[in-house]
Amino acid sequence: xxxxxxxxxxxxxxxxxxxxxxxxxxxxxxxxxxxxxxxxxxxxxxxxxxxxxxxxxxxxxxxxxxxxxxxxxxxxxxxxxxxxxxxxxxxxxxxxxxxxxxxxxxxxxxxxxxxxxxxxxxxxxxxxxxxxxxxxxxxxxxxxxxxxxxxxxxxxxxxxxxxxxxxxxxxxxxxxxxxxxxxxxxxxxxxxxxxxxxxxxxxxxxxxxxxxxxxxxxxxxxxxxxxxxxxxxxxxxxxxxxxxxxxxxxxxxxxxxxxxxxxxxxxxxxxxxxxxxxxxxxxxxxxxxxxxxxxxxxxxxxxxxxxxxxxxxxxxxxxxxxxxxxxxxxxxxxxxxxxxxxxxxxxxxxxxxxxxxxxxxxxxxxxxxxxxxxxxxxxxxxxxxxxxxxxxxxxxxxxxxxxxxxxxxxxxxxxxxxxxxxxxxxxxxxxxxxxxxxxxxxx
Length: 443
Fold this sequence. Notes:
Residues 38-431 form the Mannosylglycerate hydrolase MGH1-like glycoside hydrolase domain. Helices cover 46% and strands 5% of the residues.
């Protein structure tokens, strides 16, 4: 019997596993994604974790978001890593000594990275409040609202490098899908040598199979891009003039639009005007369709601003705009066809683990980080879109596949999309959190 059709006993076991994982990863005011691979606070991890915590520890969910936004930069950016000062120097690479964010005038007093991640935080705040509409929760929402607005302002104003109304990412890490095949073409232009890595000790391959992680050449390119941004003082002015990586990502900008929809709801609760948020949400969706939708494939593709071309790789990034409530019906229908194709699902159904990359592609790698494996956060976003656009049967199939993965392998970081084997960290925060959210929603 699969977890998707299991009885109360199995579902109770899954809830207990998820809660134990989150409790084990709690670190005084936030949840680490993993005690081994990721011992600090990560930005979009905390947002997903808050969504799950709202079902079992709502006060902790608000602390999760508050602690992250205390590290917000003066320019509005929310850093993708907030470093734990209690961790010994060298315990994680690249650490504060590599980022050296003190070179930036806008940086906070605490040690952080200088990059961002997809802005799913406003959506998280709204979902936590919806689960916990207490006076204390409303007060927490009121504290977060101006910070969320500042985050959006930073992304929509300073990161609109292409001038078309979308935010550009300046590093693959900002997409959240670190070494997706979507970044192969833009990364190929980044000058770096694999030998660069001899000067550093990678933290990830000390805790995970190197065959499942990015290559040394990819990592050298990641460091080269960070160094270019850092040496420019993490300033966004002049990016178009020579930054080595500039891409408009469909997932990142779908999250940007979702944030405006969430902020409209938050504004209404707080007595502010939701109109400007709704208008900005509409403009972002329009820009996504105009700039990133490929009519030939029916899906969304990243736009490499260095070349002016759409990236052809068909990855799960292209399905993310399905989560937008105002996505036109033509694009919704095309994305549903893509999601149910042999590339991502089973013809006409969604009850097979959702891969991060086209299963039919010759370079599909079911074991390597973001180049094939299944991740619960991406399945959660696509399921959110299926429910938004009234595809309950498909959403139910995707839910069953998510529950089955964890029932068989535990709260792993990611999973083999065919065998269901657990990969990466064995006790991963957002897997546990989103499991709790899916368990609470039986649609």
